[in-house]
Model the fold of this input.
Amino acid sequence: MSKACVMDENSEVVFQRKMADGVFLMGIESPGIAATAIPGQFVMIRVRDGLDPLLRRPFSICGIREPGVVLVLYMLVGEGTQILSRILPGERISVLGPLGRGFKPDEKDSRALLVSGGIGIAPLIFLARRLRSGEALFMAGFRSSRQVIQVRSACLVCPEIYIVTEDGSEGERGLVTDILAERLKGAASERGRSSIYACGPVPMLKKVASLSKEFGVPCQVSMEAHMACGLGACQGCAVPGKRALADAYLHVCKDGPVFPAGNIRWESL
Amino acid sequence: MSKACVMDENSEVVFQRKMADGVFLMGIESPGIAATAIPGQFVMIRVRDGLDPLLRRPFSICGIREPGVVLVLYMLVGEGTQILSRILPGERISVLGPLGRGFKPDEKDSRALLVSGGIGIAPLIFLARRLRSGEALFMAGFRSSRQVIQVRSACLVCPEIYIVTEDGSEGERGLVTDILAERLKGAASERGRSSIYACGPVPMLKKVASLSKEFGVPCQVSMEAHMACGLGACQGCAVPGKRALADAYLHVCKDGPVFPAGNIRWESL
Amino acid sequence: MTEADLGVEIAGVKLKNPVIAASGTFGYGEEYAGLFDINSLGGLVVKGISLKPRQGNPPPRIVETPCGMLNSIGLANIGLDAFVKEKLPYLSGLSTAVIVNIYGHSIKEYAELAGALKGLSGISLIEVNISCPNVECGGMAFGTDPDMSARVTDAVVSRADLPVIVKLSPNVTDIRAVARAVEKAGASAVSLINTLTGMAVDLGRRSPVLGNVIGGLSGPAIKPVALYMVYQTAKSIGIPVIGMGGIVNYRDALEFIIAGASAVQIGTANFINPRAAVEVIEGIRQYCETNAIARISDLTGSIRA
Amino acid sequence: MTEADLGVEIAGVKLKNPVIAASGTFGYGEEYAGLFDINSLGGLVVKGISLKPRQGNPPPRIVETPCGMLNSIGLANIGLDAFVKEKLPYLSGLSTAVIVNIYGHSIKEYAELAGALKGLSGISLIEVNISCPNVECGGMAFGTDPDMSARVTDAVVSRADLPVIVKLSPNVTDIRAVARAVEKAGASAVSLINTLTGMAVDLGRRSPVLGNVIGGLSGPAIKPVALYMVYQTAKSIGIPVIGMGGIVNYRDALEFIIAGASAVQIGTANFINPRAAVEVIEGIRQYCETNAIARISDLTGSIRA
Ligand SMILES: Cc1cc2nc3c(=O)[nH]c(=O)nc-3n(C[C@H](O)[C@H](O)[C@H](O)COP(=O)(O)OP(=O)(O)OC[C@H]3O[C@@H](n4cnc5c(N)ncnc54)[C@H](O)[C@@H]3O)c2cc1C
Ligand SMILES: Cc1cc2nc3c(=O)[nH]c(=O)nc-3n(C[C@H](O)[C@H](O)[C@H](O)COP(=O)(O)OP(=O)(O)OC[C@H]3O[C@@H](n4cnc5c(N)ncnc54)[C@H](O)[C@@H]3O)c2cc1C
Ligand SMILES: Cc1cc2nc3c(=O)[nH]c(=O)nc-3n(C[C@H](O)[C@H](O)[C@H](O)COP(=O)(O)O)c2cc1C
Ligand SMILES: Cc1cc2nc3c(=O)[nH]c(=O)nc-3n(C[C@H](O)[C@H](O)[C@H](O)COP(=O)(O)O)c2cc1C
Ligand code: FES
Ligand code: FES
Done:
């Protein structure tokens, strides 16, 4: 277990850009983190000095822009993300990272199936940019057109991008897992050489995991949990997992956030 | 006891201006408060939304600029005033006021002696502007030239202004109470028709109070205490006072902040 | 759609809604009168009243702490006689429930206070403070011992002609034991929590900040402790629980109600936002309407755990 | 000017400075190794170790609260054997004091743990956790009763070959009674406070937020309570007090020391700022130099009250 170097960087926010309803892309100058981060890893951001809100917020790394800028795509949820969205370029925040285990794309994939729900698109955008070989198919689900995050420009490597909305207001209508299911059913020939990489809400990931099992396609999922340390020290970020050890929980910040779908006890979620 | 109307105004900050080292003048659009405030009264400001810092901060009203702008002159002390100083014009803060009992200038004064120490100058600037009759003599003490707040333009009604610094770097050298003592000693004839109005740190006020007693010149002082409500509800802002009742404490927010100097038990401070 | 019924009943007394201003943070009511319509409250608890006027503890009495504050007021109050003469006339003109918080140095004093309030009009309930950390004898000394708590309760209940709420201290190993004891002794309801005992140190002077050395911690900082004690207590007794501790908005208030409170009190939040209590009422009303809750009392103790 | 002497002695063990990383917030040390030089710490306390590995409580286990957090980890740990095999080799290579925090379900288990640590090199002190609110039996049940606390202490002390610190619970009516009891039973020092029991409610789901319903409150919110308990305890016993609860910077740490602590632990602050402990050490050093304090130990209990 070689230990990658984690850094706590006092980083300048270099830009903030609105990407969709309540979704912003932030660029943060963190050269140390940018240098080693891989897709699926995350950072813990202290949204302001002072004691409230107390804890850092975890965000996937959505990309790296040279030189040394870490991209974070975030959605407004509560006070922490509200504060984040009001930070002006030039101000500084404390960023801890890169943290956790990222995606491990299979070099032998002929096709990577990237499946995201909502803001879960963030780590997959980074992954799409870093995929070395094969082709990628990006399936991104959203509630409605106003939530859609445009990925076309970000994902030059993906010849196929499906936008799916629950209300059909943009792209195809339905759930992203429906599209995935169709794809897996349709193209039996591909299955053997494909892998799924997924991030999104738990019900979606459950469905993805069950499809991956049904069709025998390997699958990696990026999970979330409330976190305190992000470093594997507090044991706060437990998710029910399968393990040889007596410990029936896996820790998102250290064992994940990316797990083989088969290592999660989905039935306990 | 007629009750003046207290208002909680969600007020726009209209300007912030640096006045001396670590001292700022802030203009806040609070028409309701501006309409009825008298010198010596104060406001309670919530420096930001959220839970920390929790309590409002009390500040004397330093003046009113028509139409409807309340002026606050404040010094950086801790987190609350730091946050205040970073508020940009156009942002809003919650301002409760006008609170407390102000100065009651004696209409028969031939001469008002305004004595301030440091940031204690704030309520006296307002008082100087509102004095109706007689002449005023403004004695303002500071530690050093970098702390001096220029009052000349603010106090058109004061023909005489003395700036006193402890290190002599601007104006006269010494303590403001030395100047007051000299004045009281020198001009015996005036005494009968003068009153002292003072605000500043406790040791200074103690000295002023004892001079007022020694020379038989009436004196009103503006006091400070840590506050929670500012409305007379919590009993937090007690200062040792003289009273007919069993209650041996006066409350700064309700009985003051301006008190006849003789009503304070200075020996207990 | 019909309006949600926010009315609750505590010990036979009907409150128009479950939101009450807490003792010591709302003066004698009139202090807040200019800021909103006090009659919109479910009730208000006056500052703790003792037989004789009390000057309270030496200053400083207030210090801010992270998301909270310490106070060491020491039950400064105008005393029973002045309360009845000077404050009650105003209070009895209100159309909200007036709750008188009482505090004694001995069981006898508590009983005397209850007796003295007998027959006075304009008072709906008595709240017995056996939990103030800021006074030498009495106060919390009673509230941390189930037996003593029961004896105080019994003495007050047998003298009073109004239903009695006993206000519990959180500074105990097991608050349920105290709650059960006062229930058995005749309390009609309990309210909790009073402040947690705490302290602040002035680094510059190397001395306590508060004149009284120790004080009571209140505000959002204590909310998790308060919620837990309300939850635990509500499951252990049959009389209503009035919950408080760190409530600043309607969401906080609803959390207490869901955890088991029949009504809530708003304390420190009044200082930050004098309209806190009315905003809580408005927020609860909207929540009930949005979620099709017919009666707020249906939410009490509805937690799924 | 000579450098201030930050060294302190706890139960005969010399610490290079009075700043220790608290149990459960610093893993087994190596998690923070990349972020600063761990050997600059006065000491570190490892996550509570039990005889058998424990999976801990169901998630969610963490919830943020105003200026604080609740955790219901439930003493998830790798168990004694794995600790000795996998973690101790790294720890024993450190030049900072390693303190092993132990937790048992019964007095027997506590004693067994103490016995099992006997003769192992690389450990300086044992800290006995009798105050965890997150486990069903044992844990806080011991820590809230002076007799039981004394019995656990006695059992550990008689089996251990290292000095024993007993970690006290704040969820008691009188922490001094427990402190005195464990002192009498042979504890070489006490540490306090562990977390306050608390709870959070999820309004949307009308259920507790934490999988375990209740959790332990830590962070700045609890600092006033912790300071008070340290102050009170230090005056009541003769053995050293290690203070903690909400310390985030050197000023907080010095307040605890002035109130009576011989050393301090940094817990939740490690999560907000992984360099919190080293910054506290640096701040203390500067404070001592600015104020011409020759030995930090001179400040312990120097409060004027
Ligand atoms: C590994 C990981 C990667 C993530 N990546 C992204 C991302 O790229 N973009 C994005 O928008 N969001 C991401 N999230 C979720 C993000 O952390 C939360 O939306 C954020 O913490 C909410 O903070 P808040 O103060 O606005 O909300 P509040 O609800 O007020 O937060 C209260 C507390 O709950 C925690 N919390 C709330 N929601 C979540 C959640 N979903 N996961 C973990 N903790 C939560 C907060 O951190 C905080 O401690 C990620 C979470 C994890 C664990
Ligand atoms: C009636 C009155 C009028 C005042 N007028 C002015 C004014 O015109 N200009 C000005 O600069 N200051 C004035 N002050 C002092 C001002 O309230 C404090 O400087 C300010 O509250 C400090 O807040 P902080 O968060 O920066 O400091 P911190 O020290 O971090 O504050 C911590 C807590 O202590 C309280 N506090 C700290 N210092 C004081 C103090 N001197 N008086 C009362 N509470 C204090 C704060 O309100 C807060 O609750 C006045 C105080 C009172 C009581
Ligand atoms: C300044 C102040 C004074 C208080 N005085 C009393 C009192 O006289 N009697 C009483 O029973 N409780 C008193 N309390 C306790 C409150 O009523 C309430 O129980 C406590 O503050 C917790 O609620 P909160 O967090 O909403 O403030 C006082 C609290 C404060 C802050
Ligand atoms: C996530 C977490 C886990 C903890 N685990 C333990 C533990 O295993 N053993 C123990 O004695 N204390 C444990 N504690 C308590 C801390 O050591 C400390 O006593 C408490 O958090 C108060 O200090 P703080 O406010 O600085 O965090 C834990 C605290 C936290 C926040
Ligand atoms: S967040 Fe602390 S172990 Fe994962
Ligand atoms: S600040 Fe509350 S009574 Fe004065």
About this structure: The two ends of chain B are 29 Å apart (CA to CA). Chain B has six helices and 16 strands.
